[in-house]
Design brief:
Blueprint: H1 3-22, E1 47-51, E2 56-59, H2 61-66, H3 78-82, H4 88-100, H5 102-105, E3 107-115, E4 118-129, E5 139-146, H6 148-167, H7 174-192, H8 202-211, H9 224-227, H10 235-251, H11 258-266, H12 287-302, H13 313-322, H14 330-349
Antiparallel strand pairs: 1-2, 1-5, 3-4, 4-5
Helix pairs in contact: 7-8, 7-12, 7-14, 10-11, 11-12, 12-13, 12-14, 13-14
This protein binds fe (ii) ion (2 copies).
Residues 215-216, 244, 267-268 line the site of one fe (ii) ion.
């Protein structure tokens, strides 16, 4: 965006704000939101009532439940609370709806609403007059239609099918990927309140809790004789095996969140730069991959495999802590060590049934 465009936008915003100050908050005595007959008070549909200036007059229980990260909706301006989630054009059109009566005083749109504490909400928004029998309405209903679960469910079911397909080939058990999700999520939750991990928000925790399971999805492209070979791999077989990271990133590149790709591509990188596929070092390795690699290795050590017995919790912790600064991020390992007892509980609670 050019400087003149930015200045133009700032002037436009100032003009809109002037509008907010000069238009009257006159409710014409209607106050639909205060009436006992207001059907939205107990409605399942999240609803706000606003006046022409976009001031929130009333928020029903369902809207408070939906917008848990936002305190005290009533009395604030819609643009102050949700302004950053709307495009500038949306705000302009909403203002024209309530002030000038565009489109019969109605507007519809879709926004992503998020805060650090709250998982993103994808919602359709409908604005329309609170009274249909008033020529110049002064109160409006803002109705939210939360489509987050619908969209997320659809997206995740597609990627779950992919995971199921990859499980047909990989000799890792089903519960391994469930447990890696659980450990990764737990570690991310622990980091949430720690200084230096501000980028971890509710979405990060929710996503890692689903996407960690995808770390080896690229093994779908690894030849069976290499994947199932007993005994050590030859140099070229090992090279082919390592390709599962890039294959996974390629497969997951259609997932809308880059986290999926980062996990698949970088979960075998090592803190000291000796991992694969790119020998990334330290902070160059995406945080999400550093978390998943601890979770994956913990579980891989714990569970029995055809070529090794199960290792008990204490010994596993010892082995992992020995790899501080070499394989794993030392700061993350300290956090892991602090909550390692919960990893053991998660392992025990999600045992494979034979
Ligand atoms: Fe892997
Ligand atoms: Fe794994």
């Amino acid at each position: 965006m050019s400087r003149s465009e930015i200045i133009g936008e700032v002037e436009d915003v100032e003009e809109l704000l002037e509008d907010v100050e000069t238009t009257s908050g006159d409710s014409s005595g209607a106050s639909a939101y205060l009436q006992d007959t207001n059907p939205f008070i107990h409605s399942l549909f999240p609803v706000l009532f606003i006046n022409r200036d976009l001031k929130i007059l009333f928020a029903n229980k369902a809207s408070e439940n939906l917008l848990t990260g936002f305190k005290e909706l009533t009395g604030q301006y819609l643009t102050d609370v949700f302004g950053k989630f709307f495009t500038f054009e949306d705000i302009r059109l909403i203002r024209e709806t309530t002030i000038k009566g565009s489109n019969g005083y109605s507007w519809k749109g879709e926004v992503h609403i998020k805060s650090r504490e709250m998982v993103s909400i994808q919602t359709k928004i409908y604005i329309f007059p609170a009274h249909i029998d008033i020529a110049e309405p002064s109160e409006f209903v803002v109705m939210f239609d939360d489509v987050t679960e619908e969209n997320r469910g659809l997206l995740r079911s597609v990627f779950m099918s992919l995971l199921e397909a990859s499980k047909l080939k990989d000799n890792d058990t089903g519960k391994h990927i469930t447990r890696v999700n659980c450990y990764s999520r737990r570690l991310a939750m622990e980091l949430f309140n720690k200084k230096g991990y501000e980028r971890i928000d509710a979405d990060f925790i929710d996503n890692i809790g689903f996407l960690a399971s995808m770390h080896d999805v690229g093994k779908i492209g690894t030849p069976d004789d290499i994947l199932n070979k007993e005994g050590p791999l030859s140099d070229w077989e090992w090279k082919v095996m390592q390709e599962h990271t890039k294959n996974g990133a390629f497969i997951l590149s259609t997932y809308p969140n880059p986290m999926a790709k980062e996990i698949a591509l970088s979960h075998h990188e090592r803190w000291n730069g000796t991992g694969y596929p790119f020998k990334l070092e330290g902070d160059m390795i995406p945080l999400v991959a550093r978390i998943v690699s601890i979770a994956d290795v913990y579980d891989a050590l714990r569970m029995p495999r055809s070529y090794k017995p199960a290792i008990e919790h204490g010994k596993t912790i010892e082995k992992i802590m020995e790899a501080k600064n070499t394989q794993f991020d030392p700061a993350l390992l300290d956090v892991f060590y602090h909550i390692a007892g919960e990893f053991e509980e998660l392992y025990e609670a999600n045992q494979d049934k034979n």
